[in-house]
Amino acid sequence: MFVQRCIDVACGSEFELDERLYVCSRCGDLLDVEPVGIFTHDVASLRKLWRERRGSNDVRDRSGVWRFREFLPFADDVDVVSLGEGNTPLYDAPRSADYCGLTSLKLKHQGNNPTGSFKDTGMTVAVTQARKLGMRLVACASTGNTAASLAAYAARARMQCAILVPDGQVSEAKLAQALDYGAKVLEIEGNFDTCMRVVQELAEQSSLYLVNSINPFRIEGQKTVAFELAEQLGWEVPDHLVVPGGNLGNSSAFGKGFRELFSHGLTRKQPRISVIQAAGAAPFARFYKNRAAEFVNEDHPETLASAIKIGAPVSWKKAWRAVRETEGYVITVTEQEIADAKAMIGRDGIGCEPASATTVAGIRKLVAEGLIKKDESVVAVLTGHLLKDTDYVIRYHSNTLTAPQEGVEKPIRGTFANSIVRVAARPCAIESVLKNLA
Ligand code: F0G
Asked: Which residue among 243, 308, 325, 350 is buried most deeply as judged by most CB within 10 Å?
C-alpha cells in the first residue's frame, strides 16, 4: 500500500492517494508517494519477472515505466495511459568520453521517448492518476517539453489540457507538438517561474489537475528510469550519474529511484548523483556552493538552453536530498561549454537538445577538477532529443550563435562547427570538396 507523505520529517503528515494535493495541506512542504506497512519483495524473482515482461504484449509490460509496477502506487487492474514510454537506449559514447577525459562514458538517452523527452516517463503515471481521480482538465507550466508530453498523454486519455508557456521563450518544435496534440497553449508574459506560480495558484482555486513535477506521481514515473538503467547495467549501478538541473524534478526522481533500489536490496550501492546547471540559471548550484541556510531564487535566469531557464525550482528540497545522500556535486557550465559539449555528443552519432549537453560539459569539468576519476563508471542522462531545438544547432554550426551575458549578446564560438558548403551542380566541383574527406 502507498500514501502521500510530507517530506518534512517533523511534519510527516500522511494523506490518501486519491487526495488531490500538490503540497502538504498541513505545513506546505512537498509530498512524496511512499509505501506503508510491509513492502517486501524477493529480489531474484522481481528481476526475473521484469525481464520476462519484455517479451509480453500487455500494454503495461511494453512500457519501460509500468514494467516496474510493483514499485508504482496503483492497483494491478489500473487503466494505464501509455504511449510505450521508457525502454530508452544506453549508449557508449567514445568521442564524448575522450572529450571529458574519461576511459568510457555512457549516455542514457531519454530523448528517445514518444514525445522526445524524459517527461513521458512521469507523464504516463500522472495522467493515469488524473484519470483515476476522474479529472477532466489537466495543466502545467512549461519550458516546452512538459507541455509537449502532457499534450500527448492528455490526448490519449481524451482529457482537456492547458499549458502555460513563457511568451517567446519556447522552441518552435515543442510548441508545434503541443498544438498538434490539441492542447490549449497559453503564452504568458514573463518567464517559466511566472507560469509556474500562476498555474499553482490556479490549481488551488479550481478543479484542474496540475502535473508539473511538484505532483509526486510525476516523480514516481520518472524514478523508474533508475530501475531501467540499473537493469541495463546488470544491476551494477555506475559510480556517477549526472543530470541537468532545471525545476529539479528529474534529479529528485533519480534520487528516489536509486534509494528504493538500494533499500530493497536490488542494487548494492547508489551512484553519486550530480546536477549541472547553466551558469545563468543556477540557484541550486549557488545554494550548494555556499552551503546556504536558505535557498535563494534567481530573479532573471538566462540561458540558451531554454528547457532549464528556471530561477525558482519547485523541487529543490528533494533534489538536495538526492545530492546530499549520495555525495554528489552541483556545478555550473557556461554557454560556450554547453554548445561545444552538445556538438561533441552529436559527433558520437547521438545528439540531444542543449539542456542535455550540460551533463557532458559538467562531467568534463568534474574530471578536470579530480572529482570524477578517469576510470570511474559514469552515466550522463540526455533529457531531450536533438530535433527539439534545431535553430540552436544550425546557428552553432554556422558560427552565428550568440548568448546574452549581463545584458549584452556575446558570440558563441563554433569550436566544432560543421558548416554547410555551397557548391556548383557539377561532379568535379563536388569531388573537389569531398577529396579531403577520404
Ligand atoms: N532537460 C530538458 C530537455 C528539460 O526539458 C528539462 C525541464 C530539464 C532538462 C530539467 O529537468 O526540471 O526536472 O530539473 N523541462 C521542464 C519543462 C521545466 O517544462 O519542459 P528538471
From this structure: 243
